UniProtKB/TrEMBL annotation:
Keyword Iron part of the UniProt annotation: yes
PANTHER family: OXIDOREDUCTASE YYAE-RELATED (PTHR43742:SF6), TRIMETHYLAMINE-N-OXIDE REDUCTASE (PTHR43742)
Pfam families linked to this entry: Molybdop_Fe4S4, Molybdopterin, Molydop_binding
The protein's name: DMSO reductase
CDD domains attached to this UniProt entry: MopB_3 (cd02766), MopB_CT (cd02775)
Family label: Belongs to the prokaryotic molybdopterin-containing oxidoreductase family.
Keywords tagged on the record: Iron, Iron-sulfur, Metal-binding, Molybdenum, Oxidoreductase, Signal
InterPro entries: Asp_de-COase-like_dom_sf, MoPterin_dinucl-bd_dom, Mopterin_OxRdtase, Mopterin_OxRdtase_4Fe-4S_dom, Mopterin_OxRdtase_prok_CS, Prok_Mopterin_Oxidored, TAT_signal
């Protein structure tokens, strides 16, 4: 029986490395590193290397500042930039595999066309032919429909560098198009914090060392933000207590002083029960609620009339005395903080849950203090000009009537607002959007920094949607599932082959990304691809595309920076970052340090009229979690050494995760007649997945876990059984509701016990 979902011992790790030639088998079956056998050792001569500044632009809390070692034009090693007190000189395991990503034999090397979509019959074509095919199709759509609304962009977080916004700018430069708006990651929580405080703004994670009580609620930083863990450890060394609240016994939970397992989606009830106990015991911070808050008396009355600790206990599954103790311990020290994880708000009641937790933290007076805060995320260091994104549509472009599409309203040189905007479709219901869109239909889909077949929902519906499309273009590095459903694939550069800058949504460091090597094969970055398309379109129809036709990445980086950012980071221009990353110079490490909130009242809003106007409750009231007749709640969290559909496809990473599993409690498995390592089918009315099972007590009896990732050697996709169920919030701030990724249910049946362990 496994005690750790995904655990791999040292011996199996070395065996995996042996298959890659990194270790050797000695007589007697012992394994040893080839490096250890080298006689004599290869001398290390730093002067023979060139070092470049890079930044990891993946959708990750840590956004690591990197230093890349290059010898004879080849990347040999990637390390963390020691100048960053956050990265602290060490990337995660994923970062250490970056050289393999660059030089992977599986990488897409040239523009290619697939003769029959999904057939695998790919032919190499030139960039000129690829751009001519795409430009011809776009102009055909324009002629047929009278607009470019039949062209759609599906782009998200495969590359969060600011230069990747060239893809959005490219779309704007051809006219008003269709955009998939919103985000699958964190929108319900963004809305919640906007209703409560007027913006999403978290303390500097480095100030967690000052906290005397830390609750990590629905997050797993041991896997998903390893650099933040050192601050948690340092706080504990100084006497802080660390509590993890999660339905799953995660690696972070295993390292905590106290782990509290709650039922999925019950977080709001627990927070409200804790809040009620503060009222009962007179532990509410009167200074905060009387001087810096709006609507607290109404919220307190709601608690007195509708909430009891026993009620919360029944819903969340924790003993009532545990809830009382937790609330009392949190208020007994100062400062205390809650890390609100993104997984916790991926429920049908996710936004309501975040508002309840915010309210509890506010009642204790821990908002606006160093070491405190209701930590969720921020965009305080993202003050770019977004020049590449802010292109102008060609003269005479027609779109949806009414300004204010996904990229905002267009203003001409004369200052006149356009009467048109882009058409917005919900990014969390991509398949439904394509199938339902008419007048005009979506005819061409451009996919960039995204893998819809692995990341969007309801796979069966997605296949029908792609079948409806007339052309699919993917800009990518690997032949993932979405590329397999494309007509044309364009090879894009890696982090180490283009200019960029990267900010974090968690810490406050800014990093430059310089090309460490020349682009491999025929790969190009998003900006150069936009330039090539502009040239092709204007050759066929002059004036049809406004994107610049000259490629000058350094000039474009100049255009992204402004005096505000220079002052914020204490630099004169982005060139200064070539000497090392820079940290924002903030008045305090605490968000809302002056307690001047961006709400309509200027105060923390327990009662939000704006929230009520948007169709929710004005107060942070309890909202029920999802229910189902199916026996198992399904969780699909991030893999330790993968990020969405990236990294695990690399052979180096397959040493850690050679194949996917579904994790199941022993009692549940016994009831189903399932043994460890048996082949099972996980299914619901959306679809099914066949894979092997690992039996572990880390998951509850009515729970199964399948880690979200792309294993390129296996027909596996958690999205087969994840529906496009919306979360309660997200539309106000991001344009579309969030995705209730964790409000999903399945059943499991045995397929075969062949290979199972008794």
């Amino acid at each position: 029986m496994s005690n750790d979902a995904g655990h791999l011992n040292r011996r199996s790790f070395l065996k995996g490395l042996a298959t890659l030639g990194a270790v050797t088998t000695l007589p007697g079956g012992l394994l040893t590193s080839r490096c250890a056998q080298a006689q004599p050792p290869i001398p290390f001569k730093p002067e023979t290397y060139k070092i470049f500044r890079n930044a990891c632009p993946r959708n990750c809390y840590d956004t690591c500042s990197l230093k890349t070692w290059v010898k004879d034009g080849v990347i040999t090693y990637v390390e963390g930039a020691k100048e960053s007190t956050y990265t602290h000189g060490q990337p995660c395991v994923k970062g250490l595999t970056y050289p393999r990503r660059v030089y992977s034999p599986d990488r897409i090397k040239y523009p290619m066309v697939q003769d029959v979509r999904g057939s695998g019959n790919w032919r190499r074509i030139s960039w000129e032919e690829a751009m001519n095919r795409i430009a011809t199709k776009m102009l055909e759509i324009k002629k047929k429909d009278g607009s470019m609304l039949g062209v759609a962009l599906s782009k998200y977080s495969g590359n969060l560098g600011v230069m990747s916004y060239a893809a959005e700018g490219m779309m704007t430069s051809i006219g008003y198009t269709t955009r998939f708006a919103g985000t699958p990651c964190w929108p319900a929580g963004i809305d919640a914090q906007n209703y409560d405080m007027g913006d999403m703004w978290c303390n500097d994670p480095e100030d967690m060392v000052k906290a005397k009580y830390i609750i990590v609620w629905g997050a797993n930083p041991a896997w998903c933000s390893m650099h933040s863990m050192k601050y948690i450890y340092q706080a504990r060394e100084k006497g802080a207590k660390v509590v993890v609240i999660d339905p799953l016994l995660s690696q972070t939970a295993a390292k905590a002083d106290l782990y509290l397992r709650v039922r999925p989606g019950s977080d709001g009830a627990l927070a409200l029960g804790m809040a009620r106990h503060l009222v009962d015991k007179g532990l509410v911070n009167k200074e905060f609620v009387e001087n810096y808050a709006h609507g607290y008396p109404e919220f307190e009355q709601y608690l007195l009339n509708n909430v009891t600790v026993e009620w919360a206990s029944e819903i969340c599954g924790l003993d009532a005395d545990v809830i009382r103790t937790l609330a009392e311990e949190f208020t007994a020290v100062n400062p205390a903080t809650v890390w609100i994880g993104y997984g916790m708000q991926r429920h049908v009641n996710g936004g309501a849950n975040v508002r309840a937790i915010d309210a509890f933290v506010a009642m204790t007076g821990n908002i606006g203090v160093e070491g405190g805060g209701a930590r969720y995320g921020h965009l305080q260091t993202w003050g770019y000009n977004y020049a590449l994104m802010s292109q102008k549509p060609p003269a005479g472009s027609i779109g949806i009537k009414g300004a204010g599409g996904p990229v905002g309203e267009f203003v001409s040189d004369s200052g006149e607002k356009s009467e048109y905007s882009d058409r917005a479709l919900n990014i969390n219901q991509t398949a439904r959007g394509i199938l339902d869109a008419n007048e005009p239909p979506v005819r061409l889909l451009w996919v960039s920094s995204k893998n819809p077949f692995a990341q969007d929902f309801d796979r069966n519906k997605m296949e029908k949607a792609f079948a409806k499309l007339e052309m699919v273009v993917c800009a990518d590095q690997f032949f993932n599932e979405t590329v397999q459903h494309a007509d044309i694939v364009l090879p894009v550069t890696t982090t180490f082959e283009h200019w960029d800058v990267s900010s974090s949504y968690w810490h406050y460091w800014l990093s430059v990304n310089q090309p460490a090597i020349k682009p491999m094969h025929e790969s190009k970055d998003d900006a150069e691809i936009a330039v090539l398309l502009s040239r092709a379109m204007n050759k066929l129809e002059p004036g049809s595309c406004t994107f610049p036709q000259e490629y000058d990445p350094k000039r474009w980086l100049d255009a992204e920076f402004n005096d505000g950012m220079a002052k914020q980071f204490g630099i004169t221009s982005w060139d200064d970052l070539l000497n090392g990353p820079a940290k924002a110079k903030m008045p305090s490490t605490a968000s809302w340090y002056d307690r001047k909130f961006k709400t309509p009242s200027g105060k923390y809003e327990f009662l939000s009229e704006r929230c009520a106007k948007d169709g929710h409750t004005a107060l942070p009231q309890y909202k029920e979690a999802a229910q189902s007749a199916l026996p198992f709640h399904l969780f699909t969290p991030h893999l330790q050494y993968g990020l969405h559909s990236q990294f695990v496809n690399l052979d180096w990473m397959q040493v850690f995760w050679p194949e996917p599993y579904v994790y199941m409690h022993p009692k549940a498995a016994q009831q189903k007649g399932i043994r460890d390592n048996a082949l099972v089918k996980v299914f619901n009315d959306a679809g099914e997945v066949e894979l092997r099972v690992k039996i572990t007590t880390n998951v509850p009896e009515d729970f199964v876990v399948m880690y979200e990732s792309w294993f390129n050697k296996h027909r596996y996709n958690v999205q087969n059984v994840v529906k496009d169920t919306p979360a309660d919030m997200g539309k106000m701030a991001t344009g579309a509701p969030g995705a209730a990724i964790h409000s999903q249910f399945v059943d499991v049946i045995l397929v075969s016990n062949e290979g199972a362990v008794a």
